[in-house]
Every structure is written in structure tokens, then in C-alpha cells.
């Protein structure tokens, strides 16, 4: 695991907007900032679980929007890999899966468009963010602490969550709740240690047949999950114009991932049909 870069935000008792995976989806990121304004939540009260850059066609612009807003971001595997000039996204996909095969296209596109200053920003991002809210201490991670690209699903065995919780506390001390990202599915799960909260991602729908994506709001010690409506058609058109037509462009429109094989069987859609 190595030493983890830790950022302590101190007390954050007002409403916090939690989200992950902008995924280079500029329209969704703009819509999220609009939703925050409507809720009266300042950008300083927004926290991203990482993967600002991924499948969609506006990596440079999406990074710049996040940076300009000064949103707190924990490093995802995509940030780590792009900062290091790595050859792939390090997403943790098994070799030969659809995700693994499709990643080659979007990652090469992103690599060509992310600026050196943006890579420097990514390299400085924390691995773990902590803060206190309404008397409870929260830790924010990307996938796992043992592995930044570990998939922690709503259906993962209890021991997976317990292992990651132990690793997080070994790095930053006791935590009452953990906020994570990476898997792309929003869920809140009670564990013997506290709540494991994944607010979902804004850049891709959660494989549910609808275009809306997800984010969370932490207010008064409670987390609520919300749908984000944005111009999915415009974003898909941007991807198609850029030649990013491996399937994620259709996912924005259909609400179904082209990569269902990455999901545990219990989370797959029985009637799912690609295309």
C-alpha cells in the first residue's frame, strides 16, 4: 500500500455535495455545478472521489472546470496513471474483458489531451481525504485503500469492506464512515463499523436504462442520493465527433454500459442487450 497522501479538511458541518467519476463528461460536470448552485452548496463544499478523466471526450475542459471551481478531489486510478505517464488506466479490469479492451481507446485519447500542468495537479492529489461532519469523522477514498482500483460493490462480501476499513484506519486513524467511488454504482451500506457510502458517478449512468447519473448530499449527518439530469445527447455527439465510438457514447443514451461483464452477476441486467 505504501504511504498514503492524506488531506484533512477539518470541520465541514454544512451541506456537502459528494460525487465521483466526471469521466471527461463536460456537460454532466457543468450540470452538477448548476445543481449545487440550486441547492445553495458552494464549490468549496463539494468532494469528488476521483476519475475526473475517463471515457468521454472533454478531458482537458473537465479538469479545468473542476480545478477552477477548487473542488476537493481524491486521486483515482486515472489521475495516478495519467500523472505517471503510464500506458494504461490501471482500472483493475481483468485482461480480455470488455472494459479492458475499450479502455485502450479512451485512455489514449485522454493521454493526448491532458496538459502537463494538469498532470502535475493530478500528481499532488491526496489518496485519502478526511473531515468531520456533525461530530462524525469521514474518510474519502477512490476504490480501496489496499488497491486504488479495487471494486467495492453493493454486493461485495462483508470482509472486503472490513479489510478496506482496517487499511483506511491504519493510514489515517479511526473513521466513523467511509465515502468511496470507482465502481460506478451508488449505494449506502451499513457495516459494523459505520456506513460505507458510494454517491455514484456523474459521468456515466449506473447501468439502469436511464440517462441520468448520480451524486450524493451529506447534510445533518445523513446522506441522500440524487439523480443528475444533463445533456446526454450533446455529450454523446461530442464523443462521436471525436471518434470515441467504442460503446460508451451509446451508454450515455441507453443507460446501459457496454461492459456489463465487469459487474458481479447479481448486478447484471437479465434483459441487457448491447447496441
Automatic annotation (TrEMBL):
CDD domains: MPP_superfamily. SUPFAM superfamilies: Metallo-dependent phosphatases (SSF56300). Residues 41-211 form the Calcineurin-like phosphoesterase domain. Belongs to the metallophosphoesterase superfamily. YfcE family. This is Metallophosphoesterase family protein. It comes from Sulfitobacter porphyrae.
Amino acid at each position: 500500500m505504501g504511504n498514503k497522501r492524506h488531506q484533512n479538511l477539518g470541520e465541514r458541518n454544512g451541506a456537502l455535495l459528494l460525487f465521483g467519476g466526471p469521466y471527461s463528461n463536460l456537460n454532466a460536470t457543468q450540470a452538477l455545478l448548476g445543481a449545487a448552485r440550486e441547492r445553495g452548496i458552494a464549490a468549496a463544499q463539494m468532494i469528488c472521489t476521483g476519475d475526473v478523466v475517463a471515457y468521454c471526450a472533454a478531458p482537458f475542459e473537465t479538469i479545468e472546470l473542476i480545478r477552477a471551481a477548487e473542488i476537493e478531489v481524491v486521486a483515482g486510478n486515472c489521475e495516478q496513471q495519467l500523472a505517471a505517464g503510464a500506458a494504461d488506466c490501471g482500472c483493475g479490469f481483468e485482461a480480455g474483458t470488455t472494459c479492458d479492451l475499450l479502455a485502450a481507446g479512451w485512455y489514449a485519447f485522454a493521454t493526448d489531451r491532458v496538459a502537463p500542468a494538469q498532470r502535475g495537479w493530478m500528481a499532488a492529489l491526496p489518496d485519502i481525504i478526511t473531515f468531520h461532519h456533525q461530530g462524525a469523522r469521514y474518510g474519502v477514498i477512490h476504490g480501496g485503500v489496499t488497491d486504488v482500483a479495487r471494486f467495492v460493490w453493493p454486493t461485495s462480501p462483508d470482509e472486503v469492506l472490513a479489510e478496506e476499513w482496517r487499511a483506511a484506519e491504519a493510514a489515517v486513524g479511526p473513521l466513523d464512515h467511509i465515502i468511496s467511488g470507482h465502481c460506478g454504482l451508488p449505494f449506502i451500506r451499513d457495516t459494523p463499523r459505520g456506513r460505507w457510502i458510494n454517491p455514484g458517478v456523474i459521468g456515466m449512468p449506473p447501468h439502469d436504462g436511464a440517462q441520468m447519473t448520480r451524486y450524493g448530499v451529506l447534510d445533518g449527518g445523513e446522506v441522500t442520493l440524487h439523480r443528475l439530469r444533463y445533456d446526454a445527447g450533446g455529450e454523446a455527439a461530442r464523443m462521436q465527433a471525436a471518434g470515441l465510438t467504442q460503446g460508451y457514447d451509446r451508454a450515455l443514451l441507453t443507460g446501459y454500459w457496454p461492459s456489463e461483464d465487469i459487474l458481479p452477476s447479481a448486478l447484471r441486467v437479465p434483459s441487457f442487450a448491447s447496441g
